[in-house]
Amino acid sequence: MKNYRPAKKRVEVSVGESVRILRELQELSQSQLSELTGIPQATISAIENGRVNLGVERAKVLARALKCHPAVLVFPGWEVPVEVAA
Question: Where would one find coiled-coil regions in this protein (predicted)?
Fold first, then answer.
């Protein structure tokens, strides 16, 4: 581990992309996520494509369904030191 160096290039992820990535990792369709959250499928699509802002309340509902903290969705590029995250 002494030779470990973090990658130089980082990928920027938008709020919508973070929702899509987490949804796909859990093998959920937009329709299935809609059923879990009560958020219309068209709204989920609009969020993922950056046409609609996520908002705090939607972030909470989606985070519950996607089993993550709302901050993961709202601040996808935020870096947290390992000591704090654990």
Answer: none
